[in-house]
Specification:
binds 2-phosphoglycolic acid; about 15% strand; alpha/beta; 8-stranded parallel beta barrel
Length: about 260
């Protein structure tokens, strides 16, 4: 008899290594992770997003596992005179399945706008990469009561012109800027509330059926000790993890906690 699955979306936890880990350090970390975590893990999707320079090695080391490779950024053009940029097909060629787009550090330090985020999302989708689209308000915006307005603008801008989409191909990450790297996560109830709002906006933009399929992660000071507070909520489908993904014990424990 078929059992009713109350959780139709497969949870997804992505480790965003940011600008950490040389190749040699990445090799050590992956070796330790492979000892601590089942490479053929079921019930949760694991995505590792190392710096560009580690992608070939990490891709090779996790080959044969069920873990996925993701990049932290992408350029929207197929190729051309864009010094320092990396194209979608280059990422696909290295085995990437996911790409983080619109992270608040890129918006704040590298001038990314909703328009460039939108180009990147479109380019990723066209290349068969799944964008992890990050949205979230700053502390000032939250204090001004603008959380919903900011998140809605980032979603409608980032997804402008996209109407045909399979929900599994897009991941949204709610990352309140004030919670990133601060050790002060958003309360799980509030994160679920904003995630619910994100799903509502996604429904308006892409249709309710698609919005129901899209995984919405929470990100911002997620640790082994608090991830279950987020992932136990039906409206939150995993996490985007920075600092706690840089160390094998913490990332492995975090994944186990997320599995429940
Ligand atoms: P953090 O980073 O887990 O270190 O807060 C999260 C992120 O930037 O995605």
């Amino acid at each position: 008899m078929a059992t009713f699955d109350p959780r139709p979306r497969k949870p997804i936890v992505a480790g965003n290594w940011k600008m950490f880990k040389t190749e040699a350090e990445a090799e050590v970390l992956i070796g330790q992770l492979l000892q601590r975590l089942d490479p053929l893990i079921e019930g949760i999707e694991i995505v590792l997003c190392p710096p560009f320079t580690d992608l070939p090695l990490v891709g090779k080391l996790i080959d044969g596992s069920k873990w996925h490779l993701g990049a932290q950024n992408i350029h929207w053009e197929r190729q051309g005179a864009f010094t320092g940029e990396i194209s979608p097909s280059m990422l696909v060629g290295l085995g990437c399945r996911y790409v983080i787009v619109g992270h608040s550090e890129r918006r704040a330090y590298f001038g990314e706008s909703d328009e460039t985020v939108n180009r990147k999302v479109k380019a990723a989708l066209a290349a068969g990469l799944r964008p992890i689209l990050c949205v979230g308000e700053t502390l000032a915006e939250r204090e001004q009561g603008r959380t919903e307005a900011v998140v809605e603008r980032q979603l409608s801008g980032g997804l402008d012109g996209i109407d045909q989409l399979s929900g599994v191909d897009l991941v949204a990450a709610y990352e309140p800027v004030w919670a990133i790297g601060t050790g002060v996560p958003c309360g799980a109830g509030e994160a679920e509330r904003v995630s619910g709002f994100i799903r509502e906006v996604l429904g308006r933009l892409l249709g309710d059926g698609t919005a129901e399929e899209i995984r919405i992660q929470y990100g911002g000071s997620v640790k082994p000790g608090n991830i279950a507070q987020f992932t136990s909520r039906p409206g939150i489908d995993g996490a985007l993890v920075g600092g706690a993904s840089l160390e094998a014990d913490s990332f492995a424990t975090l994944i186990r906690e997320a599995l429940g």
